[in-house]
Amino acid sequence: MRSPPNASSPLTTASPQMRYRSTILEPDGSTVQTVLEAVDEQQLHDQLHTEGRMLVKVTPLERRAAVERKVVEVRVSPRRLLLLTQALFEALDAGVPLLRTFTAIADQEEDGRVAAMLEDIGDKVASGQTLSAAMAAHPKAFPGIYCALVRAGEQSGSLPTVLRSMAGFLEWKIDIATTVRQAMVYPVIVAVAGYSMVLFLLSFVIPRLGAVLSKIGNELPAASRVLIGTSDFVAGNILWIVLGSIAAFVGGWLLLRVPAFQSGALTLLGRLPVVSNVVRTLAIAQFARTFSVLLNSGLTMTNALQLGGASVSLPDLRRRIDAAKDRILGGARLGEALEHERVLPPVAMSMVGVGEEAGRLPITFERLGRLYDREVKDAVKRALGLMEPVVTVLLGVIVGGVAVLVVMTIYSAMKGIGR
Length: 419
Prior knowledge:
The chain has helices at 41-50, 61-68, 78-93, 98-108, 112-126, 131-136, 144-156, 159-216, 222-236, 238-255, 259-269, 276-296, 301-310, 315-329, 334-340, 346-358, 361-418, and strands spanning 18-25, 31-38, 54-60. By secondary structure, it is mainly alpha-helical.
């Protein structure tokens, strides 16, 4: 089979030259994809025809380059990123060319924005960029740690292996996120139900009671007067209160996506007695899983620590990992640095020490990831077991307090009538 011309050498000296991504049918029946230069598509077709080859498909890259500026940045969900990673791994593992893989995935994509992004990545790869650099041009879709892992796989020649590791890591993240969301369902439902019940009492029940009591004209206790005054305010502004509550909920949900606010919220949660163990265990599991994938991808110890620390959600642990990285740069061993900064618990540190002595740190951190994966789920179950009665008692106190004030108000009014 005749090898295709080099992408950097033109077929002719005529100018101006344009670059084309070309699919060529060879005389032996095989097809190749390459980037060629010519004045126009007809000249490219004639030149290949004289060589006994057939131009099957051609795409002018200059024209596509003008289109790529119109590509809208799109955020890819973790599940969609997992599916894309699995598709890339399966294609590369089966020997399918990378350009053909992106074309096939883009053709099957229902979301036009995602399809345009995939086509843009394919064009960049066809024009000579590395896959990691093409993905880095879409930071909303491909996080920095994802691009770093792809770059490490390209440099080490083990990109399929790296993609398989990343697929497993993304599956783990989705599973943990699902576990945490399921654990939050009960407290959120109970809180919303309690808030709605209090609003109903203040806006519907108590104002009618206040109207009756005002006709009686007896002097009410101070707490009863405050309750009736509050209910009158709520009843008069119930629409604005409901809209404000919805806006506050949505605003809080959006703020949780802001890194600075998210770090502050996690720091606060890390100090609460019920959920601190969950937050800490989840952060350790994140670090162990990420560090294992980074080491298996061929990154150096310091680069793996830097990227692994950046992936940790808990700010305190992230600072400890950065300090451990500085100690390693100063000549300390990994086990000594992690132990000095108290990054991991003593049991985990003993495993790290043995793994470092045996030269099996990637396997050690992979086992630690699996261990803390189970610990996270157990910690979530324990925290949920404690939160359920706490939330129930708190709701009972709030609703019961309002009910007691109502009864006291009625009792005071009836007592005045008796006199």
